[in-house]
User: Fold this.
Amino acid sequence: MASSTTATTMSSFKDQSSWTSIKRKQSCYVNSSLQTPSVIRIPKQTPAYKTSSTISIPPKTIPKKKSQSSSSENQWGFLQKAAAMALDAVEGVLVRHEQQHPLPKTADPRVQIAGNFAPVPEQPVCHSLPVTGKIPNCIDGVYVRNGANPHYEPMAGHHFFDGDGMVHAVQFKDGAASYACRFTETQRFIQEKSLGRPIFPKAIGELHGHSGIARLLLFYARGMFGIVDPSHGMGVANAGVVYFNNRLLAMSEDDLPYQVRITPSGDLKTVGRYDFSGQLKSTMIAHPKVDPVSGELFALSYDVVKKPYLKYFHFSPNGEKSPDVEIPLAEPTMIHDFAITENFVVIPDQQVVFKLPEMIRGGSPVIYDKEKMSRFGILPKNARDSSGIKWIEAPDCFCFHLWNAWEEPETDEVVVIGSCMTPADSIFNECEESLKSTLSEIRLNLKTGKSTRRPIISESEQVNLEAGMVNRHRLGRKTRFAYLALAEPWPKVSGFAKVDLFTGEVHKFIYGEERYGGEPLFLPRDPNSEEEDDGYILTFVHNEKEWKSQLQIVNAQNLKLEASIELPSRVPYGFHGTFINSMDLEKQA
Assistant:
């Protein structure tokens, strides 16, 4: 039933970046949850300050002299300069205080960005890459995948989700392939680059306990004196990507999307923060859904500070936004993903919540609330308000991702397919219990208001299944197959699984010894094919022994390797991707 592959021989490409080993206070090996060496490799573009046996105290944020910087930076007043010096001194005290306390694994950069989770420098487009096998003729366009890639060395706590966004692109044209990777130049990235150091607070790695409060106050004080400007967004655009209305959008749920243009040569260029021509005035989560039939884009926006804590909206195929629908929630809730059906949106309201007062008590603001009842809200897609939402309880259910949902009118049910994670907050908070991610079928009965949940895979074959997808041309409709990352040993991905959602049968494609990857992307051979699994899986794979990366193309029906493309530089483990065909690229805005 299972099939596997070993990596094809790669030519001796060398990692073209220069690396610096960061030594921390403890020089011993850290037995981290990433199960990788306790060495962080940061590209040479990191700031000039050096690391010693302790974390470096930040350099001054006063602008450089005119000979070293632009004339605009030289226009600071005396008050601004004095404020910058004072706030830098405060930060130095804060850093020294933090060094006296061990970091949890979920905020320790030695753990979070070790091994192939470490960042890489930008790679200009490289053409005519070596190919083993044959690229299928139907693959004509660009595969893009987003990921977190910190531009500067962390000075304190850092979570993998905190890194700056970097998009990796493989362009397919006339049977050949090219590769490039570029930072998404967010407002945060641009301002930190101009200062030559990290200065924006990191939402997960730094904002916990009293030091998190101090860092927030420090940041907003710098904003008051014009040292930084948070008014144009603080997001990293590192999680999701979607191609909609002739635009490639890079997203994280803490900001508006950023438009990234793919050049004719296959390179990437940031256009800027995209607000849909002034229509979008709030953040948007990183997993919007494009309905394959209507062409509409559906999305959510959540706020951790003020009501409404959650809003729903959608866009017509030409980008016209609907009015916001305020979804009533008692408290701000982590909602990373949701689902659509033919007629409804499925909104999870689960037990991982934001409680900012926990920082005052010295803890993390992201917590697992055992007293809260998880539930799903079913709302008509075209609702103008929330009066028609139907909430159905689903006890002890936390799905970080939902893979699909559909309606079964004969039983008055909405069926939701997702990976249920336990412990629910283990991604954000350190715990002793091992993480489990169980592929599950959740049935929400619209008539009785009750729910049921069952694991799709038998207990004897149970494995952690996380990042992945169904055939997106059938999103919101009943699908038989899901293609999901084998997240073992967690959080590495040793292969992917093709799961029959009806029978629970699992077929695995294993990358091979010391080879790991990420999200498998399903690309249909023909969008109109009658066979749901008629297509290919695209996935980045990294050889940790040889320290080389490649893109693999696998036949989705028989799980046979069709082609391997050798990449000119290392591709870190990352997040989510999409494919844009050449015809759509020709209409790119």
Remarks:
- The radius of gyration is 23 Å.
- The longest helix spans residues 78-99.
